[in-house]
Design a protein that fits this description.
The complex is a heterotrimer.
Chain A: H1 2-12, E1 16-20, H2 26-38, E2 54-58, H3 69-72, E3 74-78, E4 85-89, H4 90-96, H5 100-109, H6 115-121, E5 123-125, H7 133-138, E6 141-143, H8 158-163, H9 181-193, H10 203-212, H11 222-240
Parallel strand pairs in A: 1-2, 1-6, 2-5
Antiparallel strand pairs in A: 3-4
Chain B: H1 2-18, H2 38-52, H3 60-63, H4 68-78, H5 85-92, H6 95-108, H7 123-144, H8 150-160, H9 163-171, H10 188-205, H11 208-218, H12 228-231, H13 237-248, E1 254-261, E2 269-276, E3 279-286, H14 289-305, H15 334-347
Helix pairs in contact in B: 5-10, 7-8, 7-10, 7-11, 9-10, 10-11, 13-14, 13-15
Chain C: E1 8-9, E2 26-33, H1 41-49, H2 51-57, E3 62-67, E4 74-79, E5 84-88, H3 94-106, E6 114-115, H4 159-174
Parallel strand pairs in C: 1-6, 2-3
Antiparallel strand pairs in C: 2-4, 4-5
The chains are: A alpha/beta, B mainly alpha, C alpha/beta.
Biased composition (Basic and acidic residues) (chain A): 189-227, 244-262
Protein name (chain A): Ribosomal protein L13
GO cellular component, one term (chain A): mitochondrial large ribosomal subunit
């Protein structure tokens, strides 16, 4: 009797999982987190059995959206009254509450049935690594991340940047698009800074260019883009001093305060 | 409704017409409705019947369809056994039946010395049957579980020979109508005594081996689906485990937490493993660490006694025909084990 | 009418019958019939032709005959656990009556209900029923959470890795 009781207790027990969302895509993470919340990782899974586990998500503040989703991905709301429609961009929501983006991603990913609310109650999200002790003692295992943690440009060492094979280079008289005018001038600046031509040590610049088109930028308009790029260089300069501490991916719209990065 | 009343009235009148003239004519009296009180009357009758209780069960012999000899014969043949008729008859006679019959004869004035009843009760046969069954069950259990402690064997044997088990067997073997008892249906004790007496009767009619096969086929399968470790209550599993390991010269049991989950909640789960000389001897889950540790000790004991859930099934049926049991051999007892370890502690391991 | 309203039960073996020895669960059969009615004709033929063979081959079953005037024939069976069953055999041929008797012989005294599962086992698992920590190493407990897990690796090669691979091949070629 007691033997069977403890065996059943062990089989039907609810485990607590930890998921580190540091620089992970919220949408890919949500599919994995939902998998554990529903209980599909268990061979005793049944849709109505309430067999899901708890998931504790940390570093939700450092979540990274794909492409330019911070700017483009909108959350819609309607109060129910005429003229009550509103849409909020992801970056704004993240500013207000750094746990909401991942929370909504999981909520929208879960099956749309009456079990959804209960499953969401078992999801605990924390913006940083600080988790209350009661919850930390509960945790029994950790979920593997969904993508390799990307490195920012300032996290690459100079040697790495230099040793990386250069795939191509812009011809000297090539005119880039209007949006990249500043880049061209930068190019010339950097060229001026260094002794050699384009082909020397501009791998880093290219990397910067390539990366500036990537996940991390949230430029609002052309002028702001310019400002951002300026801050980008400042960032590069700053990082020469070697600040390795991980920081927020998102660039705030009020980046008129150019000095403020950390 | 009016039409139905009329039809019934007409039917009533027709019946009245059919009655012979000498009877009193019972005319339906027409008040508002001549059947006004009928519903109430029938309800009252129903309540009185319920209050009186159900009809007492009668033996089929009282209902006219009963052939006692044929039933006895069939009883023996059902098991595929040859019983001696008289012995089998004796096996069903209860003492209270004899007493009742004797009292009846006394009341009727029949002298019991000149006209004896000629019935012997089944208590001797029952005693014999119990002895045979008990001895065989213990030997069989010792054969099946050679590493289990004697106390455990006795506990399992007590379960098999318990009131509940034997009653369950007795009630499903068809003894009800055959038992000759003071009352019908017979009391629970009658089933148990009769079943034991049947074993005894078989032993005397044929031989003890056949009775033992009978016991093996009827009583021992009641263990199927039961956990023998649950039948035996071990009060201090950790203490017993320590003594066992000490007697084998192995290291003492060290509990280690293997896994835990949800420790700060009500639904906490801990898996504790017991190690002896850095080797895992048993592990178990539990709601708290204490429970898990205790269950791990029990699990370790199961492994040492080779009575885990994954043990081989009992040898029954055709496979069990060839087994030979040693009736004198006894399994190791906990008392001996404890005495051993105490002596070792007091006098060293040279003894 | 649904399966929840109709009584149902799990498969049961009365007293582990068959594991030790098989005991026929049918205790006695009372054949009620009329000696003259047409509906009992088949039953009467059965009694004349098949009954003795049946009784001889099943010595453990007691057969009673109960003639009842102007009544339809019945087979009333009683089982070892006290269950009673009655089958009306009016207007059946002797073979049909024999068949019904065969059915009664093969049954236990368990009431016929919908079976929830067509099987029963006392040992549902040999290796043990799964629990969340079955295939996990106890070393996951040794360090506190959050832990640094090994970096995520995908099956597909990333662009960066591809470029580095090309570079290495080039170096090899040049060397």
């Amino acid at each position: 009797m007691a033997h069977n009781r403890v065996l059943q207790w062990a089989t039907m027990a609810r485990t607590w999982w930890l998921f580190d969302a540091y620089r992970q895509c919220p949408f890919k993470s949500s599919s994995k987190i939902a998998y554990y919340l529903i209980g599909k990782h268990k061979p005793i899974y049944d849709s109505l059995s309430d067999i899901g586990d708890h998931v504790v998500v940390i570093n939700s503040k450092y979540i990274s959206m794909p492409n330019d989703y911070w700017r483009v991905y909108k959350y819609f709301h309607h109060t129910g009254y005429p003229g009550g429609f509103s849409e909020t961009a992801a970056w704004r929501l993240h500013e207000v509450d750094p746990t909401k983006v991942i929370e909504k991603a999981v909520y929208f990913y879960l099956p749309k049935n009456l079990l959804r609310r209960g499953r969401m109650r078992r999801l605990h999200i924390f913006p940083e690594e600080q988790v209350p002790t009661e919850i930390l003692t509960n945790i029994s295992d950790q979920i593997q991340q969904v993508q390799p943690v990307p490195k920012r440009l300032d996290e690459y060492t100079q040697e790495e940047i230099e040793s990386f094979p250069k795939l191509f280079d812009w011809p000297e008289d090539f005119v880039l698009q209007s949006g990249f005018k500043m880049a061209e001038s930068l190019l010339s600046e950097s060229k001026k800074a260094e002794t050699g031509g384009k082909k020397s040590e501009t791998g880093g610049k290219k990397a910067e260019n390539i990366q500036s088109g990537g996940k991390k930028e949230t430029p609002k308009t052309g002028s702001k883009k310019a400002e951002n790029l300026q801050t980008g260089t400042k960032k590069a300069e700053n990082l020469q001093t070697g600040s390795k501490k991980p920081e927020s991916q998102t660039e705030k719209p009020d980046s008129k305060k150019t000095g403020k990065k950390h | 409704m009016a039409t139905i009343r009329c039809m019934r009235l007409m039917h009533c009148m027709q019946n009245l017409l059919l009655l012979p003239r000498k009877t009193v004519n019972i005319c339906p009296v027409f008040h508002r409705s001549y059947r006004r009180g009928l519903r109430r009357y029938l309800k009252e009758l129903y309540q009185r019947r319920l209050k009186a209780g159900p009809e007492p069960e009668r033996h089929p012999s009282q209902l006219g369809i009963w052939n006692h000899d044929a039933e006895l014969f069939a009883f023996g043949k059902r098991f595929g056994e040859e019983f001696d008729e008289n012995l089998l008859k004796r096996a069903f006679v209860q003492r209270n039946y004899i007493i009742k019959e004797e009292n009846k004869r006394k009341e009727l004035g029949i002298d019991l010395i000149t006209v004896p009843l000629g019935l012997v009760d089944n208590e001797d046969l029952a005693r014999k049957g119990e002895e045979i069954a008990s001895r065989y069950i213990k030997a069989y259990l010792r054969y099946s579980y050679p590493h289990m402690f004697e106390e455990g064997i006795c506990a399992v044997h007590d379960f098999l020979m318990s009131h509940q088990t034997l009653l369950h067997i007795g009630m499903n073997i068809g003894l009800r109508e055959l038992i000759m008892s003071a009352e019908y249906p017979p009391p629970e004790q009658a089933y148990i005594l009769t079943f034991k007496a049947v074993i005894g009767a078989l032993a005397v009619s044929q031989n003890v081996e056949r009775a033992e096969v009978f016991v093996k086929d009827i009583i021992i399968p009641q263990l199927i689906g039961k956990d023998i470790n649950e039948l035996w209550e071990i009060v201090n599993p950790m203490g017993l485990l320590k003594a066992m390991l000490a007697s084998e010269g192995r290291g003492p049991p060290e509990p280690r937490l293997l896994w835990h989950s949800a420790s700060a909640t009500v639904m906490s789960l801990y898996h504790v493993g017991l190690y002896s000389d850095k080797e895992l001897i048993g592990k178990s889950p539990g709601e708290t660490v204490t429970i898990a540790e205790e269950m791990a000790a029990r699990n370790a004991l199961k492994h040492l006694m080779q009575t885990t859930d994954s043990r081989a099934p009992l040898t029954l049926g055709a496979k069990a025909v060839k087994i030979k049991l040693d009736y004198d051999k006894k399994n190791r007892s906990i008392r001996d084990l404890l005495n051993e370890t105490v002596e070792e502690r007091l006098y060293g391991t040279e003894i | 009418m649904g399966s929840r309203l109709i009584p149902s039960n799990f498969v049961k073996n009365v007293m582990q019958n068959g594991i030790g020895r098989y005991i026929c669960q049918l205790q006695r059969v009372t054949i009620e019939f009329c000696k003259s009615n047409g509906s009992s004709r088949g039953t009467r033929d059965f009694i004349e032709n098949y009954l003795l063979d049946f009784a001889k081959s099943n010595p453990g079953i007691v057969m009673y005959l109960r003639p009842r005037r102007h009544k339809h024939p019945h087979l009333r069976a009683e089982y070892l656990n006290g269950y009673k069953e009655s089958i009306p055999v009016a207007n059946m041929s002797k073979d049909e009556v024999a068949q019904w008797l065969g059915i009664l012989r093969g049954r236990t005294g368990v009431q016929i209900v919908r079976l929830r599962k067509p099987w029963h086992t006392d040992n549902p698992s040999i290796q043990g029923i799964w629990h969340p920590f079955m295939f996990k190493d106890p070393s996951i407990n040794s360090k506190p959470f959050p832990k640094k897990l090994p970096a995520y690796k995908s099956d597909k090669m990333s662009a960066t890795e591809y470029v580095l691979q090309l570079k290495q091949e080039q170096l090899k070629i040049t060397n």
